[in-house]
Amino acid sequence: MTVSRRSLLLAGGAAALGAGLPRASVAVSGETPLRRDVATLIDPATGAWDPALHWYAKAVGWMKRQPVDRWDSWLFQAYTHGKPEAAPDDPPEWRQCPHGSPLFLPWHRWYVLRFERIVRRVIVEEFGRDDQAAWALPYWNYAHLGPDGDPGGSAGSRRVPLAFRQPYLPAAHGDAPEPNPLHLPSGDPAGRCLRDDEAMGWDIVAPDRAMAEPAFGPDEEGTDPRAGFSATLELYPHGLVHDAVGGLLGAVPTAAQDPLFWLHHANVDRLWAAWLARPGHTLPEGQHWPGERPDHTGGTGRLPYLLRDEYGRRHLLTGPVFAFPDDAYRYDSLTDGTGTGAAPAAVLMAQPPRGGSPVADSAGGVRLGDRQVVLPLEPVDALAGTSLADALDGDRRVVLTLDGVAADHPPCETFAVFLGGDTADTDTSGPAFVGHPVFFGAAARPGHGAAGDGRSFHFDVTGNLAALRAAGSASGRDVPAVRIVPGRGAVHEAAAPRIGAVRLTVV
What angle do CA 202, 206, 212 make, to 5 degrees? Predict the structure, then answer.
């Protein structure tokens, strides 16, 4: 099927979406829907589910029973994000998520909103629940901290939410057990790799690296090398949570098939709202939706960004990128789970270092597995140590680059990168910690998300090296080794995660 923006408009099959929403899409109760933390929707004493959670599960079950070509079916909505295999007769909505793009946050905001309103219609009209006319999608607040602010005391928030771990819906009045549509097998690459009894590490879910970014995107003048809020949030924690949960959620083409996907992205959207609510944070001006989106369809045509609403009507994403209705939904908190304010020392960079001097590099790539890997870096010449020391004492920067980050399958694992050869130092709050390579979108799967030559990550590690020198852990002149430490120690056997090359550059 070859479909273009022009053919859709000429056929009258799509309306513009961007400046606002048709009034019929607004909750009929007149109340702005409230998105709440999913952890608050189960009674800790009785285990009873809040109606919002119960009816989400029932709606998901209904959607899973619909034929795939129906706009409000589970797979139609999931395939709008990504689809493992393209087919000539695929609808034009499928396979359009813009990862690695400035459109990542606004596109997912519209996508999740459209999904939320589809679910609300199913609850109200298919199940006759008029009392849920302001139903809203919950969010997964995995970075929640207790009153003392200690991540060690909030591990429960970093587990798959309880309602998604229970194989059956809570029985009412002695009813027979009913399978839970939110549940997937745990410890299973076909479901979720993260086991029900496991919690993600704080370093996986912490949003501080993104929340510390002063600007939404990279500096267009090129004077500030920082990646900006959007690109940083897309990786940390968004991409890392995809990697850590794994299974369906671990690959772009299948991620939206996991009912947990939608709560994860509601939280990512909430973090964006929280960042924007802080003083001095603004959005870029003058950006408009492009007429065509990147071709993820295997050559079936250049298509616009478009989504279906709750009644199956097509809407093109047009006009200003950041135009969005103020009354579409609200969150119960823009402060809880939005970080501690302590960002890692290393800063994610927007682009490879330009005009720099190579200092050291690895002799080749490295295959990652269940055990820590120490990767020595070879100085490019006898002056490497002097270059490092001069950078730390002057106004130059030291950049660590990871090239060729790829895998044959989502690895069901995360990997932390450290500087220095001390294998006992795995403290992700310490100065040796750099960051994580993210495999979500880098694993070779058919279609959208194929690995190719892999991804590259660039970190300004000047602050790390200076702190290590001040602590007496490094001289500042010796080229440090790079260590890669697995999180769970349970890499998917078919994944073959790898890094093609590692290098240090002074810029």
Answer: 150
Neighbour count for residue 248 (Cβ, 10 Å): 25
Q: Which amino acid is at 63?
A: M
Q: What is the pLDDT of residues 162-214, one digit of tens each?
A: 999 999 999 875 678 899 999 999 999 999 999 999 999 999 999 999 999 99
8 A C-beta contact, residue 106 and residue 96: no
Pairing outcome for strands 168-169 and 347-348: unpaired
- For the stretch 109-135, what's the b/e string if a residue is b when 16 or more beta carbons lie within 10 angstroms of its beta carbon? bbbbbbbbbbbbbbbbeeeebeebebb
- CA dist 199 and 160 (Å) reads 8
Q: Which structure tokens are listed for 477?
A: 């002149």
Q: Can you give the pLDDT at residue 365?
A: 94
Distance CA 501, CA 361 (A): 7
pLDDT band at residue 315 under the 50/70/90 scheme: very high
Rounded Cα–Cα distance for residues 53 and 165 (Å) = 13
The share of the chain scoring above pLDDT 90, in percent, equals 80
H helices present in 279-338, as ranges: none
Q: What is the mean pLDDT of the chain?
A: 91
The C-alpha R_g of the chain, in whole angstroms, comes to 23
Residue type, 318: T
Q: Which of 200, 188, 204, 491 is nearest to 367 (CA)?
A: 491
Determine the residue type at 68: V
Closest CA to 452 of 442, 462, 461: 442
User: CA 505, 354, 203 angle in degrees (round to 5)?
Assistant: 60
For the segment 100-119, what is each residue's pLDDT rounded down to a tens digit? Answer: 999 999 999 999 999 999 99
3-state secondary structure of 167: coil
Q: What are phi and psi of 122, to 5 degrees?
A: -60, -45
Instruction: Kindly tell me if the per-residue pLDDT of 448 is higher than 60.
Output: no
H or E, element range at 207 = none
**Residue whose entry in the numeric block shows the structure tokens 């990279």:** 218
Provide the CA 147 distance to its chain's centre, in angstroms: 26
What phi, psi does 130 have (nearest 5°)? -65, -25
Give the tokens for residue 398: 């030291």
Amino acid, res. 494: A
Task: Report pLDDT digits (tens) over 217-237.
Answer: 998 777 788 999 999 999 999
Q: Report the SS3 class of residue 306.
A: strand
* Positive/negative CA dihedral, 181, 187, 192, 194: positive
What's the pTM value of the predicted model, to 2 decimals?
0.93
